[in-house]
Write a structure and sequence with these properties.
The structure is a single chain. By secondary structure, the protein is an alpha+beta fold. The protein is built from 6 helices and 10 strands; from the N terminus they run ααββαββββαββββαα. The protein has helices at about 10-50, 70-80, 100-110, 180, 225-240, 240-249; strands spanning about 80-85, 90-95, 120-125, 130-140, 145-150, 155-165, 190, 195, 200, 215-220. The strands form 3 sheets. A 6-stranded antiparallel beta sheet has the order 2-1-3-4-5-6. Strands 7-8 form a two-stranded antiparallel sheet. A two-stranded parallel ribbon has the order 9-10. Helix 1 packs across helix 2 (about 70-80). The longest helix has about 45 residues, at about 10-50. It starts with 7 loop residues before the first helix and ends with a helix. About 30% of the residues are buried.
Length: about 250
């Protein structure tokens, strides 16, 4: 018996069957790819942390080249000596601290009864210097911005890595360019023993960023809101680690 494909009922049934079949295929693909997605997220975090502490494949003056995915786990184990979680004034070792979702931690911390978990990675740079790498997250012009900051025990920056979700190309998106990130190296968060933060300032009379004790770096042209958001991000997140750094001194 031939099927009448002109009936509305046939069209409805066919559409339902196709939705179910395609949905099942997509669900299967998502489930199958989930371990790969998680692995890539893990590798990316490791690459970003290593980049902040100067472990990368940069060659040219403007390169931003990460350790390759197939090598990053071994390099992470080589250069990251300890991982900790600082919570409620207590420091606990945690070999998977880098997997902590700081966005979720920030949301949980809106509850006054919750003590936020603060990941800390203690690494050794290629020159043997010890650094303490911490994650930061904030808001740019359009969406989230984030990164990692490597500090010595005096809270002087030894390197950074910044990224964004949707800042304007050629303007706010430049926060992940090397010429901007390199400006932060050597900047100090403390003025004596007082936490000052670091401003991303227009017209700071130091375009080459040679002055390192002014708590300022030169702003990106046309990206005032992104720069302000980055400065706020650094201030609010790095300040939370002050009790930890006091234990080092």
């Amino acid at each position: 018996m031939a099927i009448n494909t002109d009936k509305n009922s046939y069209t409805v049934i066919f559409s339902i069957v196709m939705v179910v079949v395609v949905g099942a295929i997509l669900a299967g693909l998502a489930s199958g790819l989930k371990p790969m997605v998680k692995a890539n997220e893990r590798f990316e975090k490791q690459q970003n942390i290593l980049y902040a502490m100067g472990i990368n494949n940069n060659e040219g003056a403007n390169d931003v080249e990460f350790i390759p995915t197939e090598e990053v786990e071994a390099e992470f184990k080589k250069y990251i000596k300890q991982q900790y979680v600082f919570q409620g004034g207590e420091l606990k070792e945690n070999d998977e601290a880098y997997l902590i979702d700081i966005k979720k931690e920030e949301t949980k911390a809106k509850n006054d009864d919750y003590e936020r978990r603060l990941p800390i990675f203690v690494g050794e740079m290629e020159d043997g210097q010890e650094v303490h790498i911490v994650p930061v997250r904030g808001k740019g012009l359009w969406d989230a911005i984030w990164g990692f900051v490597a500090l010595d025990k005096s809270m002087t920056i030894q390197g950074v890595y910044f990224d964004h979700k949707g800042e304007t190309p050629g303007l706010g998106a430049e926060i992940k360019q090397r010429y901007f990130m390199d400006d932060f190296t050597g900047e100090e968060f403390l003025d004596g023993e007082v936490f000052k933060g670091i401003s991303v300032a227009k017209g700071n009379n130091d375009p080459k960023n040679l002055i390192k004790d002014d708590q300022e770096v030169d702003a990106l042209a046309g990206a005032t809101i992104t720069g302000d958001g980055l400065a706020v991000m650094l201030s609010k997140d790095i300040k939370m680690y002050m009790p930890y750094f006091k234990t080092l001194n």
